[in-house]
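Fold it.
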Amino acid sequence: MDRLVSSGVIIGFTARVRDEADPLAIHAITLIEVEGKTADQVIARLRGFPEVLSMHTTNGRWDLVADVHTESLSAFDAVLGRIRRIDGIANTESSFLLSSVLR
C-alpha cells in the first residue's frame, strides 16, 4: 500500500459505512448541465466540495453526474445551492436514493 500511495497510483482513501449507520443521511445523484465549454472549470470547482463523493461525465442531455452525500436534507439544500451558483452550470436535477435493492 505504501508503494502504491507514494507512486501516486492510490490518491486517497474513503471509509464506507452501511446506510443504516446514519438513517438521516442524504444520498443523491445530481445531474448537471454545463454551459458551453466550461466543463473543466465546473469540474475543478466541484472537486472542492467534500459532499461530492464521485463525479462522472456522461452523454445526452446532462454533462455531469455527481454522487452527493450530506448529513441532512437541509445540508443537501445548502450544497445544491452552492452547486447551482457555480459559473458555467446551466441546470441541475437531483434524485434521492431511497433504498438499495442490489449491491
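The helical segments are 2-7, 39-46, 73-84.
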